[in-house]
Amino acid sequence: MTTEPPHAGALPMLGGDAIRALVPWVDAVAALAEAFGAYRPQPLRTGLVAGGADVLVMPAALGGVVGVKLVAVQPANAARGEPVIQGIYVLIDGERGRPVALLDGAALTLLRTPAASVLATQHLARPDARTLAVFGAGPQGLAHLAAFRACRPELEPMVVARRPVPGERLVSAAVGSAADVICTCTSSATPIVVTDAVRSGAHLNAVGVYRPERRELDAALVRRATVVVDDRVAAAEEAGELIQASRDGWSWDRVAGDLADVVAGRVTRRDDRDVTVFKSVGLAVEDLAVARLAAQRAGLLAVS
User: Fold this and answer.
1) Is residue 302 part of a domain?
2) Domain check: are 152 and 254 in the same one?
3) Are residues 165 and 87 located together in one domain of the fold?
């Protein structure tokens, strides 16, 4: 007698609350550090625009496990009071080719992106950094605040946003740009952080945009900084800050390395006055690292 694989509708589902309970921020950062420690190039995501939403398909493989995220990003939902990011994630046992779980794709996105920023900050920010500025009070901005509060509690947080954030210090862009660590978490088409406002020795995580026509940092800041990306190939396709800077005289040869290089210690800040930038477009392997850990802790996937 043969055992039929479960129908997709019968797969266990891990929702956002379950994922966050299974993978606290510190563990998410550790999972990404492990993944980038063994990083191999992955397929680029593909997608299309439908009804104003970016609909993206993101596959990845890691340690015999495969995952595919189908996610939709609809900026217009903010005005409707609906989630801007929505999606589903399928986790697959690569050895058997068998789906083992479904996970909330939006929850993964809002967990792994801040975790990557924290990971980059741990390696690239000055040891004496004491202030954190987050540009944007949307889901990613709030998630970054939560991640840094859990992983870097010594950083005093400030928020630059168009609306107040309960319990947070709202400051002007000029004050925010003078912070030791800056996270830009907006969908801006024009720079919101310019080089003249950034102090020497600052570290920036630019994570909000992943389209060539959009950018959160100006070209002068890109030229000034030691730039690290999550993946060189992905950045060349989607990192608007770098793509536009390259049209203004900056060379791609100046990318110091990727996050795997940072984790391995091959790329560090040059000195205490160096301005460092981690430009992230978001990688499928980051989702998989967190999804795999959540499924293992939920007893849905064997621990390798």
Assistant:
1) no
2) yes
3) no
Other C-beta atoms within 10 Å of 208: how many? 23
Say if residue 124 is in the same domain as residue 221.
Answer: yes
Of all residues in the chain, what percent are helix, strand and coil, respectively (each to 5)? 35, 25, 40
Same domain membership, residue 255 and residue 210:
yes
Asked if residue 128 and residue 72 are part of one domain, the reply reads no
Number of structural domains found in the chain: 2
Tokens at 280, concatenated: 């992230």
Question: Is the same domain home to 190 and 51?
Answer: no
Q: Which two tokens stand for residue 257?
A: 């390395």
pTM over 0.70: yes
Same domain assignment for residues 147 and 265? yes
Cα(248)–Cα(225) distance, integer angstroms: 15
Contact between 72 and 87 (Cβ < 8 Å): yes
Strand residue runs (E) in 113-263: 131-135, 156-160, 181-184, 203-206, 226-229, 255-258
Q: Which residue has the tokens 């009804």?
A: 51
Q: Does residue 100 contact residue 295 with C-beta atoms inside 8 Å? A: yes
**Quick check: 207 and 286 in contact, CB under 8 A?**
no
Q: Is 23 helix (H, G, I), strand (E, B) or coil?
A: coil
Token digits of residue 216: 């959160």
Q: What is the pLDDT along the chain (304 residues), one digit of tens a residue?
A: 334 444 545 899 999 999 999 999 999 999 999 999 999 889 999 999 999 999 999 999 999 999 999 999 998 998 898 998 999 999 999 888 999 999 999 999 999 999 999 999 999 999 999 999 999 999 999 999 999 999 999 999 999 998 888 889 999 999 999 999 999 999 999 999 999 999 999 999 999 999 999 999 999 999 999 999 999 999 999 999 999 999 999 999 999 999 999 999 999 999 999 999 999 999 999 999 999 999 999 999 988 6
Residue with tokens 């010594």: 154
- Adjacent-strand bridge partners of 92: 66, 99
